[in-house]
Amino acid sequence: MTEILLNLKIIKKIKKLVLRTPQKLQKMILKKKKVKLTVEADDDDVEEEGTEENPNAVSKFRISAPLREMLKSKGIEALFPIQAMTFDVVLDGSDIVGRARTGQGKTLAFVLPLLESLTNGPTKAARKTGYGKAPSVLVLLPTRELAKQVFADFEVYGGALGLTSCCLYGGAPYQTQQIKLKRGVDIVVGTPGRIKDHIERGNIDLSSLKFRVLDEADEMLRMGFVEDVELILGKVEDVSKVQTLLFSAINSYLYVQKWDPNSLTPKFTPDSPCHPSSNSSL
Question: Using an 8 Å Cβ cutoff, are 146 and 102 in contact?
Answer without folding.
Answer: no
